Fold:
Amino acid sequence: MSRITRRVFLGTGAAGLAAPALAAGEKKFKLEKIYRPKIVKVHRQFAPGSIHIEMRYFFLYYILEPEKAIRYGVALGEEGRNLSGSATVGRKEEWPSWTPTANMIRREPEVYAKWAGGLPGGPDNPLGARALYLYRGGRDTRYRIHGTPQPWTIGRGVSSGCIRLTNEAIVDLYGRVAIGTKVTTHRPAS
Structure:
């Protein structure tokens, strides 16, 4: 599969999304126009029902049909930037619980140690409103496509997390994606 570039995707319209219950700060935040969900034209080579993440430009594309996708802006956490190649959606969760990794606790114990036993799902949970769990060979990769209570991070590299969308966008994507959906990441050339 060839790399996705800005020339591969051409904007053609806006996507209408239903809003979930969001954290108070998220309701007041206005996302930059370029990172709002949008229907775009794509090359025919991308299979309908697949997800492609263009890390260089902070975009996730869900292929709707030949030559048509919905593009979402994303934030990439340190963990998400390390994801490469292909995976499949092996599990989906609404308002997922979250447990910081041992590395996160070791790196910033004052921030994460209090949640070593896990944090229940809800509007302030770092995984946001929905999560798609990525698997390879039937095993959890520990990578996630998820919502965020911090929508101002969309379009940026951030210190932690995997692949973040606004809660509104992840609710929309979650409703479109089935277990087994193929996910491919496209990293910038070194």
